[in-house]
Write a structure and sequence with these properties.
Blueprint lengths: L6 H5 L4 H27 L7 H16 L5 H22 L3 H17 L1
Helix pairs in contact: 2-3
Length: about 110
């Protein structure tokens, strides 16, 4: 007989309790991120990057835990690549002063990796 409490956790290689802890903490982080976004909506000078930080951290954690890549994750990667190309095109249209700054950013970025 199929157990509705363990079917999904088993499908992602987790026990019920492992899945419970992850899903519970994920939900808490979603609530916290949402609260920070609501506060930021009213007071734009507060929590300027907190909501996006929660979102990116949670997305990274979620993707790292996935047992296989789902189509929605592949679509997200394609969207990121498209945005990267657009940003690259915009950087080519900067003034010479900004191009120098961009060159320095690339050097720093290369050194950090």
């Amino acid at each position: 007989m199929k157990n509705i409490f363990t079917e999904h956790p088993n499908s992602v290689n987790e026990t019920y309790f492992q899945h419970f802890i992850f899903a519970f903490m994920f939900g808490i982080n979603m609530l916290l991120g949402g609260i920070f976004c609501i506060i930021h909506a009213v007071f734009p000078f507060l929590f300027q990057k907190t909501g996006s930080h929660f979102l990116l951290k949670m997305t990274t954690t979620f993707i790292e835990r996935m047992p296989f890549l789902e189509e929605r994750v592949i679509a997200l990667a394609k969207l990121i690549d498209k945005k990267r190309e657009q940003t690259s095109d915009q950087n080519c249209n900067r003034t010479p002063k900004n191009k120098l700054a961009l060159t320095e950013e690339k050097k720093t970025s290369t050194l950090e990796h």
